[in-house]
Amino acid sequence: MTACIPASPTDDEERPFLYQDYEDAAGLEEEPSGSHHPKGSKAVTPLPKAQLASLCMVRLVDPIAFTQIFPYVNEMMEYLKVTEDHSKIGFYSGLVESSFAVSQLLSIYHWAKLSDKIGRRPVILIGITGIALTSFFLGLSNSLIGVLIARALGGFFSGNIAVIHSVLGEITDSTNQAIAFPIYGLCWPFGAIVGPLIGGTLS
Question: Domain 49-202, what fold?
Fold first, then answer.
């Protein structure tokens, strides 16, 4: 038999989903309007719209750079004649695609550590510039080794993603993060949509 857990007296449709009971627990008081909110709750800090927009644009770079190769990578491997066996084209395509992610994984910590020394902005600018250059070199590569190096370097420069996340936390606070984080979170899926469209169009 399943036990029924009684709802709190303050549980209703007006209670925030992520409301924390331990915060201002002693300060709760029922207002005449019938709403149940913590007494003396903080006003919502206005979003730094310009900074948030800049971060979102920077965030788009990573998924676009990662996914733009998807539509044409198989044809690229055939063009470079990496193998005579067409059944192995998929293996080499996967190798090229995964080299980006592996390199990014290995570089994230180091970019974050460097940003504590030289600042967030220089690290972000270095990353954007590096991704642009490696994407250009990818198009000029005429061998599998060249493609792998270009993609691995692209992933290396994309490792600054943790720094971008940190900046988002620094320009927001507990009162407006519930608005800023979902907006920022839309950047990756949007970039993952735009990236293949760009790659497919230009291929």
Answer: Growth Hormone; Chain: A; (1.20.1250)
